[in-house]
Design brief:
This protein is of the alpha/beta class. About 30% of the residues lie in helices and about 25% in strands. The protein starts with a strand and ends with a helix.
Length: about 450
Amino acid sequence: MKIVIAGAGEVGTHLAKMLSREQHDIVVMDENEEHLAFARSGVEILPVVGNPTSLGDLTRAQVKNANLFISVTPEESTNVTACILASKIGAHKTLARINNYEYLQPENKTLFENMGVGSMIYPEMLAAKEIVGAIKQPWTRQYWELFGGALILIGVKVREDAPVVNKQLLELLGSQKKKYHIVAIKRENEMIIPRGQDYIRAEDLVFISTTREFEEEVRTITGKQNPDVKNIFIMGGSRIAVRTCQYLPDHIQIKIIEANRDRCVSLSEKLPGNVLVINGDARDTDLLLQEGIHHSQAFVALTENESTNILACLTAKRFGVFKTIAQVENIDYIPMAVKMDIGSVINKKLIAASHIYQFLLNADVSNVKCLAFANANVAELIAHDHSLIVKKTIKDMKLPVDLTLGGLIRDGVPMMVEGDTQIQAGDRVMVLCLDSAMKKLKKYFG
């Protein structure tokens, strides 16, 4: 597939590297030649210095033959204009990064589609929704609703005293097969798609698919507490912070600590009444104590510096805060955050990659999510009459070791997948796969 990416910032660079590893034909264009240096360091990516709103530069970038044109520059207007022009030139599909929620309203999306902007992504909004989900389920590392909430994927760190420790999956799930399904285990630096003979160890990060009905049982077997979150500290008044405050329930009291005084004034004018904006440095422990950090159940660090975010979360944990969430944009820092026991990690690159994966799979896919703590992805797929996945039971299918099915929706009813399950046409299936297996989805669901 030929893909042209406009904007060699953090998101664009990550996407280009990720997609080039999957043997896609990648062109990256940016007005700043220095931003394209990464494309000349052994990566099979064609760099083009140019303005994505210039017809001449788009032509030089071979947009006419592009299967997918992605514009992820920092400027929303540039991204929208670039997609409109790319569509007129001949790009088959287009995607623009935006920062205006109004554009995503159904009536406005149709307007943009008619102009040539096929899809839009607002990473800050999606990041805020992930933060809200993590706060509502503070005992989890990752909590994702799939198929509109019919299935749930939970990532949870297993402590030494948890009932599941040293239990073999066959033993653990013997009478519980229909309640939850352990789809993956992250053990130190290894990601495991477990089989019945595998054991769960203390400190494992376990990913479990279930339904709302059995969430509490999953919490119990993993030995987790679940405090009621009433008070939250947020470090940094970014756009993600603003969206998070707007999405959280009104009964939660929020304190945003922002170093820039002018930004504090702007935040105070736009945020709801349950939010108190404080001008200060959230790294100042005296300030945290003065503002009541001991009475807070969650701490969210959203500055542009991931080191600062991680250290601030560690400080919050030292003061007894139960749930910590850090924005970590450098993917290489995420394993460090895991080892330091940061509760949840937010990464806009992975959020953007999750959305864009949907355009690359030659299968009926409605959603893809990249797991921040693991080299794995979760996809929502629909099986069809011609799909290979419907031909045999799961145990006879002999799926690759880097891919597993976590659950399915059949006629509106959620259920866990077992060895004797046979996928039927029309089933909506949750698939967890390692990065190495993404291209294999086409074989089974295409």
